[in-house]
Specification:
Strand content: 15-25%
Largest sheet: 6 strands, antiparallel
Radius of gyration: 23 Å
Distance between the termini: 69 Å
Structural class: alpha+beta
Shape: globular
Bound molecules: adenosine-5'-triphosphate, magnesium ion
Low-confidence stretches: none
Mean pLDDT: 94
CATH architecture of the largest domain: Alpha-Beta Complex
Strand order of the largest sheet: 6-10-11-9-8-7
Length: about 425
Amino acid sequence: MTTAVDTLTGALAGWLPRQRWYAGKDRAPGTVHVERVTPLLHGDPALLHVLVAVDGERYQVLLGRRSSLPADLADAAILDTPGGVVYAATHDGELMSRLLGCLQGTADGPVFDTEPGARVAFDLPARILPVEQSNTSLIFGDRYILKLFRRVLPGAHPDVELHRALHSVGARHVARMLGSLTVEVDGIPAALGILQEFLPDAQDGWTLATTDRAAFAGEAAELGRSVATVHNALSSAFGPRNIAVDDLADTADRLHLRFAALADGIPELAPHERALREAFDRVRTARGPFTLQRVHGDLHLGQALRSGGRWTLIDFEGEPGQPLAERNAPRHPLQDVATMLRSFDYAAHHGGAADVAWAQRMRDAFCDGYAEILDDPRDQPVLLHAFELDKAVYEVAYERAHRPDWTSIPLGAITRILGAAS
Ligand SMILES: Nc1ncnc2c1ncn2[C@@H]1O[C@H](COP(=O)(O)OP(=O)(O)OP(=O)(O)O)[C@@H](O)[C@H]1O
Ligand SMILES: [Mg+2]
C-alpha cells in the first residue's frame, strides 16, 4: 500500500532537482528518504518542516498545505493530495510571516534562538528574496533577513559561528546577527538558518563595479580597508595561529591537491601544469612569519554590500561545496584578498572588451586600502599569486562546466600571472 510519505517522497524526488540550491543537479536522485516531518502550524494553511535525505545529502524543506492554492502560489505546487495541495512554503508570505513565531521550541524539530541582547519582533510581514541562490533567504519587514541553509550539516556552521564571534568583538562591516535556527541530527546540532539585520537599499559590489566602473574607483580602497578591518576582527575573535615553515608546506600541499582534483580531465590546463605547480611550490619558501586565522572563505564583489555609506561583508559560509571541516579551517588571510582580486578581473571583462587597466587600478586601490590597516598584500607576491592561481584554476573548471564562453577569462589570468611571476 502506498502511504502519504511514499507519495510525498516521490513528489520531492521530481521537485528537488529543479531547485537552484539542490546540489546533485547533474544526476537523477537515487534514494530519497523523508527523515523527519515537524508540523509547525496546523489548519489551512498548514506548515511543515521536513528533513529529507537524498543520496547521502540532507536538505531542509518547508512545505505548506492549502485546500486550494491561490493563483500567485501556483508555481510553488509540489503535490495534489486529498487533504489539499502541498507546495513550497517559502513562497507563501502569509505562512512565512508566522515562521519565526512557531519555531520557539518544537519537540525534536527546528528551534529558533534569539542572540543574547537582541530583540526580535515575530510579527513582521515576510517575503522571499526574489533570486534563489545556494540558500533561500526571507526578508521580514525590511528589518531582518533570514537565510535558510538548504544543506543540513551537523557541526559548527561558519556563517553562524563567524558572525557570532565577529559580533562578540564589536566588529564593523558585518551585518548584526540576531538569531539562529538549529536542529539536532544524529545527536549533533546542525545550523538551519541565520537571522541578521537587513540593510535597506543595499547594492552589491559586483553591480556597482559593472554599472559604473569609473565611479567604483573610489570604492575599491574603502573596500580594502573594510576587508582588512574584518580580518583584524576575525583574528582577535578567534586568536590567530602563528605558523612555522611546516604550515606553509601544508598550504602548498593543499594547493597541489586542489589542482590535481580540479584539473583532472581539463586539457586547457595541461600546458600550464608545470608552471602552476612551480608557483605552488614557491609557497614553501615564502618568507614569513605568517599567521593563519579564520577567513571569509569565498570573498568576491557579490559578497560586499554598499549601504548607508559603508561596505558590509556578507555570507561567511565559505565554499558551500566543501566539507565543513575544510570551511572551518584557519587559512592565510591573503586567500580572501586573492579571490577579491580575481573578482576585479571578472568585472573588468563584463560587457565586452576587457578593461585590464581598470582592473589593475582597482587592485592597487584595494591593496592600498588594505595596507592602511594590515600588511600590504603586495609585499607577499608569492603567496598572493599562488592563491590567485588556485582560484583561477577553480574558475576554469567551473566555467568549462557552466559557461564555456567565459573560460578564457581565468585562462587569460593564469597566463598573465605566470608571466609576471617568471
Ligand atoms: N544583511 C543583508 N541586508 C540586505 N541584503 C542582504 C543581506 N544579506 C544578504 N542580502 C542579500 O541577499 C543575497 C543573498 O545573500 P547570501 O549571499 O548570504 O546568500 P547565499 O544563498 O549564501 O548566496 P550565494 O549563492 O551567493 O552563496 C545577497 O546577494 C544580498 O543581495
Ligand atoms: Mg553563500
